[in-house]
Amino acid sequence: MSAINESVTNMIQRQRANAQEAPKPTDERVRKISPWRVLLDRPELGSIAGTILVFVFFAFTAGDSGMFALDGVINWAKVAAYLGILAVGACLLMIAGEFDLSIGSMIGFAGVVVAIPPMYLGWPLWASVIAAFVVCMALGALNGYLVIRTKLPSFIVTLAFMFILRGLTLVLSTTFANSTIVSGVGSKFDEAPFVHALFSGTTLHGFFAFLSAHGVIESFPNGEPVVGGIPKVLLWWIALAVVAGFVLARTRFGNWIYTVGGDANAAKNVGVPVRRVKISLFVLTAFCACLFGVLQVAEFGSAASDRGLQKEFEAIIAVVIGGTLLTGGFGSVIGACFGAIIFGVVQIGISYTNIDSDWYRVFLGGMLLVAVLFNHYIRSRAASTK
Amino acid sequence: MADDYILELDDVSKFFGTVIALQGVTLRLKRGEVHCLLGDNGAGKSTLIKTLAGVHQPSSGDYRVEGESVKFKSPREALDRGIATVYQDLALVPLMSVARNFFAGREPRRRLFGVINVLDMKYANETARDKLAEMGIHVRDAGQPVGTMSGGERQCLAIARAIHFGAKVLILDEPTAALGVKQSCNVLKLIHKARERGISVIFITHNVHHAYPIADSFTLLNRGQSMGTFSKADITKEEVLDMMAGGTEIQSLVDELEGRAA
Known about the structure:
The complex is a heterodimer of chains A (386) and B (262). By secondary structure, chain A is mainly alpha-helical. Chain A is 72% helix and 3% strand. In chain A, the strands form two sheets. A two-stranded antiparallel ribbon of chain A has the order 1-4. Chain A has a two-stranded antiparallel sheet with strand order 2-3. In chain B, 34% of the residues lie in helices and 28% in strands. Chain B: It holds the Pfam family ABC_tran.
């Protein structure tokens, strides 16, 4: 052994001895982080702050207008719930690093697939509802497969489907109904108890009737409560958000979603099934879009070829306001839900104020810009040694 | 005794079309030794480690693990045999926490209410923290994002992860390439610790000053061919440096700069 070799071995042993002599119970490099900083690192902080801001704003400008009475709350909560359903799916997909721009068109498409067979082909409603979910989820899988197979940005692939599905929706409805609206489906929902129970109207009617009978909530002159129950769309939204939030934060699949979105190559190298994760999230997003479409047909009693227009962008805005990074790898379902609440409150709330409702989009665009800048700041903090 | 070698490449060649990436390379890794693979850019180091890691299959020659001839179809199969490769990109996600990165793809799970499979984050946090502490890295909080760690700490995290998941052979692709002096030293110490645990290490580098102190033996690659394997007792640092293409060329550059050009 050469002299250098020995001295190096000695050095290593000395260093080891030092390390053992001084076990570090307290690392001198541990820095106290204020609770405020910890809070800042949470993805949903921005959207919760935004929600509070929006509530305060409308409390001042429309506080006595009935916006915060029970029926007002149900009004904006429904808008939030519809968008929230979309945002939950879009959120997980975006955390995994992909987009789906076809979900808006898929809402309209799901609507005509639900409405046309019972009206013109004699199908039972339940069959067409199942068909809509199957077709939409298959389309979602196709979207995902194409994105993964071609390695093209999901932006382009799903942009194509945004047009294809919107066009198909128009073709189907004009071919069968000779109109861009397929109407008269409402009665089919009334005749199908199972489908009705899942998608139509409200629930807990008895509870609300009880409350109104005892004067807790207001009633119409005929004795019916002003709010007949919790809309089904709200229940769907809450259920989806709870399940998706749980999966993301607490399960192995959730960890895979983060890994895939954070660095797909790294994910592959550590054995995460990248393709399976991405495709299943495209399927989930399609499921959410279809659910939106079915609920809307159930509510309006008709399907129309312009349903869901621009909803893909609204969903992305809600998700981004919710703190999810456009580039993936970071975000939260709770944040996306608050993003959807902001949407609902602003969209409905503005009509309760003296402000011209034309300002609605200006407001949301501004909100989006602030959210993106805020997220960018958060990310540069998280990804750097600070 | 073939059993002394945990990993052997015997006269292995690898061709990509007309390109000869490796030509008749023989490399033997003893149990518990640190084997240094040296070579300049284009020497075939990457092809060699990818062959060992199961990314490439040799065009000819024999690859034996613990004396048994193997043909890996994927990196996964090599990993199952305990051959773990830490590439330069480390396969870490900066935005995710230390613990989530440590267990990515191999998440510990427990049953919630006896039915739902959930991540065992408590176990993940504690294990990640303890395993890193064993390696001399004291993370402040296993929940902190990997992005907040230094390059050396990230390298150590990737190595600690490979060891935790049962690596018998660690292949480290230029682990000190992007690191400063002190961080490089930490990684070298870590390699030493791995050796103490009986793990065999193949350490790829073109920095002789990093390689020489820690290595037990050296294999030099040049233009796809092995220039031989030397145990440390048989060779000095200067000889190693000379054998690498850079050694003589740098000397002639120095001569030229000093006006002594031939």
